[in-house]
Amino acid sequence: MPVILTLFASSNKEDYEPDTGCLKEYNGLAMYHNSLLHQDVIRLRGKYPRVKISYTDYYYPTINVVKSPGLYGFIDTPLQVCCGKGGPYNFNISENCGMPGVSACPNPSAYLHWDGAHLTEAAYRYISSTWLDGPYADPPLKRLHN
């Protein structure tokens, strides 16, 4: 997320993933959190077998877009925000979307990030499809109703 990249920017290039431009430490934290969460969902299913519980993953569909934005119909600079002003990601913590002088891009559906902390409708549409039909939900949400 551009907000994380801005607030925790590093002058050490080794802190960044070469294929995404993301901070290794924060992506590692997200993957670790998701691993523990998935394990707990599995544990809860065993404890409450009559309850339908799905684990949905936000990280992997988002990072897939960051790695290969063109495959998903997004611009080639996926860490750039649509609505922002300044900074390397078109994001400035002091000048947020909706403030005077801060403008939005003409085609939000081409962007992954709306502002520094939220994705665009197009990004959420893609992520939700990976939860409804898989592969980033266990089980996919459409199967919970069967």
TrEMBL record:
Gene3D superfamilies: SGNH hydrolase (3.40.50.1110). GO terms for molecular function: hydrolase activity, acting on ester bonds. Keywords: Glycoprotein. The keyword Glycoprotein applies. InterPro entries: GDSL, SGNH_hydro_sf. The keyword Glycoprotein applies. Coiled coil: none annotated. It holds the Pfam family Lipase_GDSL. PANTHER family: OS05G0506800 PROTEIN, ZINC FINGER FYVE DOMAIN CONTAINING PROTEIN. Belongs to the 'GDSL' lipolytic enzyme family. This is GDSL esterase/lipase. It comes from Rhynchospora pubera.
